[in-house]
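Hi,

I'm pasting everything inline rather than attaching a file, because the server keeps stripping attachments. The sequence lines come first, and each chain or strand is labelled.
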Amino acid sequence: MIPKKSAMNPQFLQQEAIRLGATDSKVINAKDIPIEDAIVEMCRPPACDSYGTCANCPPFVMTPKEARIWISHFDKGIFFKIDLEPELLFSERQFRPFERIFRIASQLEQRSKELGWKHSWTLAAGSCKPVFCPDAPCEALIDGGKCRFPDLARPSMEAIGINVFRLAGKVGWSIHRITRAADPKQIPSAMLAGIVLICTGNNLNDPQRQIFEKIKQNK
Ligand code: SF4
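And the predicted assembly:
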């Protein structure tokens, strides 16, 4: 149950993120989210095997150019993270923290809609393919198919061009680049982050509406 006095208050969602298991969360202005064309290149193999295999990964998600239009519709973002041991990302349990991000993000998006921000949308960390569909083709890429987990699966922030490193730096979070070739013992700390975007206006202009419709068609 959402307390009435919290209605239309992004700080409520910030606290909710912590309650749902985030290590920290910040309310940010959506206009401060850095989007760069080059970030999407990080989604290509060999950095990530999910490129082109999942409806929530490039090249099937909105481009950075579209993302700039889309994000201009939002006022605020609830940027949240979980801290974790670097070794976990190199273990057979490596996708569990990603699943936590998807689940926190999904619940925050739902809370945000309950608060009245009906166009709230979430971006997570990593690809939903190894987390939810490791042994099956992406159903949403099959003609007439739909995502098996429409309430949980979302693109990552990087997939649409958000520079998570810069954004984390802006809010004062320590973040280190981690590659498959890295030695986990040499990595000082690790974190994964997600974001819930909210717009208090609930009005879309035509380009924003077209992008929202495109997103929903994948679900
Ligand atoms: S069906 Fe959904 S959860 Fe599975 S890979 Fe495709 S988009 Fe991701």
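Residues 25-217 form one domain.

If the labels don't parse on your end, tell me and I'll reformat.
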